[in-house]
Amino acid sequence: MITAIIGLALVLVVGFALLWTVGLAAALIGGLFMAISVAVIKLFILPRFEAREVYRLQTDNVTLTPQKLEVRYDNYKNGYVVDCYYHSPETDREFVFTTEAFPTDPTPYLNSVRLSIVTNRIDYSNYYVDSTDLKRLM
């Protein structure tokens, strides 16, 4: 009985030690492969995608000037937004582009700033209203 208990304890100690060393080795090898993968992605893959994105933004986007501006309070965004209306002569459609929310009413500053809309040439639903001048004044 004593030998069985000693044998069982010995098997448990050896099994635990083996599991600990193999688990630690597996974790170190996994960490090494993960570090190599992150380095390859950061050094070789991401710069290629960033250069492609810059080129796409330069060639595919167009800057529009809104023809009419309206200010309203948007409860969903909890602030004042400026709706920029643009009538497309190519499609004979009217589009509405909305700025991000402002905490105060931007109406007094609209006459002294110029808002521009940067949008995808093909799909006008992908857009950004450049309101940096308005943010600077507010």
What does this structure look like?
The structure is a single chain. By secondary structure, the protein is an alpha+beta fold. The protein has 2 domains: 1-62; 65-137, no CATH class. It contains 2 helices and 6 strands; from the N terminus they run H-E-E-E-E-E-E-H. It has a 3-stranded antiparallel beta sheet. A hairpin with a 6-residue loop joins strand 5 and strand 6 (127-130). The longest helix has 59 residues, at 2-60. The model has no long low-confidence stretch (mean pLDDT 81).
Key structural traits:
138 residues, 2 domains, three-stranded antiparallel beta sheet, 2 helices, 6 strands, 47% helix
Number of domains: 2
Written as H for each helix and E for each strand, in order along the chain, the element string is: HEEEEEEH
Mean pLDDT: 81
Widest beta sheet: strand line-up: 1-5-6
Strand content: 25-35%
Estimated helix fraction: 40-55%
Put simply, the count of helices is 2
Q: How far do the termini sit from each other?
A: 85 Å
Query: How many DSSP-defined strands?
Result: 6
Largest sheet: 3 strands, antiparallel
Q: Could you list the spans in which at least 5 consecutive residues all have pLDDT below 50?
A: none
User: Radius of gyration, Cα only, in angstroms?
Assistant: 30 Å
The 3D shape can be described as elongated
Structural class: alpha+beta
